[in-house]
Amino acid sequence: MTVSRADILIVEDKDALRQMWRLTLERAGYGVVEAADVKQARQSLRRQPPTVVLTDLRLPDGTGLDVLRAAKALDPDTPVVVLTAYGSVEEAVAAMKDGAEDFLQKPVDPDHLLLALERLVETRQLRRACILMREEYARRYGFPRMIGDSPALQEVGRRLQQVAPTDATVLLLGESGVGKELFARAIHHLSRRRQEPFVAVNCAAIPETLVENELFGHEKGAFTGADGRQVGKFELARGGTLFLDEIGELPLIVQAKFLRALEARTITRIGGTQEISVDARIVAATNRDLAAAVAAKIFREDLFYRLAVFTLEIPPLRERREDIPALAAHFAEKYGREIRRRKLTLSPAALQALQAYDFPGNIRELENCIERACILCEGTTLEPEDLRLPTATPPTGRRRRS
């Protein structure tokens, strides 16, 4: 069986043995990252999350169990194989209890090692294949579930899962209503920062004169009415994720200070002189063409490139119509129970009408449409006239419901 290219982190203090493993794995098509001790392993895990960790048990500054725990703390799904020349039942039990997938005693047969890695990589790829679309993972880990099976949504989900474990800045592109904040929350929940705050700021909803204060806060007496210190959103998101929706609306005068905060990871409150260290992962979103805004001199070019480290373009609903039935069913059940205290379904005619409509307001418009239909519906099945779509024929009278 052939598995797709995967990165393996090798943690081994003996240079010759580490090089031998590296050559073996590279010949098999794997990418390899090396570490000689626990400290280097932790740095590598934070910098580039691997597909599988292969670690010696005895290391100069700790043990392979320290590496295992560090890997699992960043991503519980990371498979870890512990190798040792001092194998014992007690060590094997400790490794398995902490989540090791395998425990092998040196010297390890290369073919045996490759078979073990192939199995682990394949299992991880299957487990991670668009877990955002799988309800059991959403319940288990608490992240937002993406509803739909379209190839376009699956591809966005795969790319999102690749970038989420890193600290890279992410720029979400898409029309209004496609659910950019949902994707931002998914990035946060799949990252090592998931236990820390997720702070969302809608740049378009804040008056231009207050944006700087909202982001950076102020000191007491900074301006008339500043009766006390106010902490800004950057500080509130420390250790977690700061989501800036509609980043294209950020006033040009604030963009320079925002860029400096991104690059230096420090801020200064309005009226203050002390630099404050902030460690927040930035996820930004916009429905505007930022490249055009740069050309029009209303958005800084350097800020644009700093934000666009990793871009994700979320497709509009009209480009993934095959997802409409699942989304509509989800909203019908949700609002049916909230409004009618019972589960509501959609008739085939209603589903056909939904799939024929372009939904310029995307998922937000679809959700509003289904909520409205649940209010208007007199039975247990939503019909086309309940939807009140702009292209639908106005109802001529009520009919008997199922």
UniProtKB/TrEMBL annotation:
Gene3D superfamilies: 1.10.8.60, 3.40.50.2300, P-loop containing nucleotide triphosphate hydrolases. Residues 7-121 form the Response regulatory domain. The modification 4-aspartylphosphate is found at residue 56. The keyword Ligase does not apply. It comes from the Bacteria. The keyword Thylakoid does not apply. This is Sigma-54-dependent Fis family transcriptional regulator. The lineage of its organism: Bacteria, Pseudomonadati, Acidobacteriota, Terriglobia, Terriglobales.
